Each structure stands twice: as C-alpha cells, then as structure tokens.
Amino acid sequence: MTRSETEQLPRFPFEADAALAPPAEWAEFRDRCPVGRVRLASGDEAALITRYQDVRSVLSDPRFTRPTPADDAARVADTESGGVFNSEMAEVLPQHGPAHLHWRRTIGKWFTAKRMNALRPGIAAMAGQLVDEMVAGGAPGDLKAGLAFPLPVWVICDMLGVPDTDRDRFAVWSDVMLSMTRYTQAEFDDAQAEFGRYLRGHLAAKRAEPGEDLLSALIAETGPDGEPWSDAMLSATGIGLLIAGHETTANMIAKMVAMLLADRSRWEQLLADPALVRTAVEEALRLDANAGVGMQRYLTEDYEVEGTVLPSGTTAMCSMAAANRDERAFTDPAEMDLRRSPNPHLAFGAGAHACLGQPLARTELQVTLEVLLRKLPTLTLAVPESGLRRIEGLAVGGLQELPVRW
C-alpha cells in the first residue's frame, strides 16, 4: 500500500466512548472484517485479528512469534516514542526456540500454584494495611493510588528482592517504557538507562550477598549452553518482571473494582456469596474493555485466516479483548456473568508466549477482592461511571484514578 492509503486505514488501538466500554470497532471487525487492516501508532500497517478462534490459533501456532530485530515487522510505536517495543529488553530476551523455552521454564518455577498459595497470607495482610491507610485518609479516596498500584509493586519487589520504597521510580520508568505516543525517544532512552543502572546495582548487591529472592536465584542459573546468564539477560529479565509484575495487575485491580461497582448489584451479589470471587475475577478479565494493544505476531510464512491468506512478512495484531467478546465463543458475551464457568478467556494470551505471571495476577486479584468485600462492604464509586477516565497512549489499558467512597 502507498503511504496515503495506509494513512486512510483505521488507527489501532481504537478509541472508546467511555472508560469501561468497548470500542464499537471490535464488533464491526468481528462481524464484517475478522482479518482487517489497521494503522498502528507508528503509522505502519498491520493485520488485525478479532475473532476468538482465530486469535487463539495464531497465538498458539509455534511457527509464529513476537517480532525480532531481524524481522521487517510493523512497528507498534514510532522511533520517537518507541517504548518497550523498541527497547534493549525486547532484543535481549529470547523470543523463540530452546532459549525462550528455557527462559520461561526458569522463571515459571517462581510462579507455581504452590508458591502462589504461600504468598496469599502476606498479600492479604498488605492489602488490609493499604485499605486501612486509605480509610484513615478519609473518603473519597483513590483506590488505584491507595491500593491497586502499591500492592502488586510490593509483591513483585518482594519476589525480586528489591525495595518497594522505590515504587514511584518504577512507575515513571514503566510508564515511559510502555508508552506508544506520550514520550520522545530521548526520554525513553533516559528511562531505560536509569532502569538498567538500577537493576545492575541490585544484581551486584545480590552477587555479594545472595538472598532467597528471584534475582539471587537467576544469578546462579545457567542457560541451555551451560553458561551463566549474562548481565544483559539478568537486567532485562528483572526490568521485564518489574514492569509486567505491577503495571498490568495494578490497572486490572482498578478496572475490576470499577466494573463491579458500576452496577452495584454485582457487588451485592459477591457480598451475598463470596465464593464467587474466583469466577468474578475471571469474568472481569474476560470483559476488560480497556486492555491495551494486544499481542503482535510476525508471520514467517503464508497463513490463512477466515479465508484470507496473510502473506509471509505480515505483522498480525491479535486483539484478545475483542476476541473475549466473541459470541461464537461465549454466551451473552457483553454481559458480566459472575458465575460464568467455564471461562476460557484469552486475557493472558495463549501458546508459548502466554503470560508467565498469570498465577500471580490471579492471586492478587482474588485476594484484593476478598479483602475489599470483607473490610469495605459499603464501597461505591465516588463519581458516575461516565466520570472515569482512561489512561491514553500506553500499551496497557487502565484508569487514571478510581475515586471511591465507603
């Protein structure tokens, strides 16, 4: 396509009329154009896939992976605001093959169900403390700033053995690295360099005095070739876990609570039957209308989707959030059914690149909801649903704040 033709394509991610509402284009693309063409924030063209089975198939196909620097892939963001998509981290971490599998297995040992169950009491205690501090500050309060953000930061910092008192620094660096349109390349370079120096300092300290944390364990690890992990790999892994371990979950906690309070009969249903917490969390994940950009896949050979042959070299954007509302996969997909089971949503992706931290995210979401129901049964939104404001310009979706009363 010519540049002018690309510029006429709809821009992705799409905008929505309200913070908790899905963009109208999701349904339009699923119904009429399940393999559509869109323009990314960079100006590059990509194929957008929106139906559940198609998204699941592409994400699960072992032939296709995230774009690597060697691929002529569409850029999610341009070079002036490249964010994590153009970062050193994206180049250092293995994206496919035995090296990627080894990396996942090594990290995955820290996210087992047994480990997550062991973390639950500590997470509940910290969530309770944060709720008490928010209440002491008086209503209305910002549940995102008071609970949703600091809780997952504390958890991932504890796992990595870094001080959560640095959480404000993580927030700044993470926002810059997750930006698609909000920061310049110079600002991104500065944030990446500062984050890297910070992690290398902690790695040096862990080498001198190893602890019982994830970073200390990784220093002692070896790769498939029997060699220790490089400093670049250790630093990139630490940065990736710090960003992914707090940013997405912090935003999801706030969005989940907002969804449940937007129609307070949902909150009342949970108060009447707290056993619904697990299925309610899964339904909030499925129904997230503000999920961000989705997942990229670079097609290394021709691939047919819905009768359309996508040629080798195509960058496919898989919208898990759009797929999670596909009526071909879910009954009454626009409805929030707190009892929905089974619920095979794609919020965490699928295949070899499915979210490694999903056991931790689920644990944090469940524990947070349990604590809120127990300690703040009268919780309500302090603004109309229409007054909730989305975060714009980041690769992950979220709310700017969540004003609540109790």
UniProtKB/TrEMBL annotation:
The keyword Iron applies. The keyword Cytoplasm does not apply. Pfam families: p450 (PF00067). PROSITE patterns: CYTOCHROME_P450. Keywords: Heme, Iron, Metal-binding, Monooxygenase, Oxidoreductase. Its cofactor is heme. Belongs to the cytochrome P450 family. This is Cytochrome P450. The lineage of its organism: Bacteria, Bacillati, Actinomycetota, Actinomycetes, Pseudonocardiales.
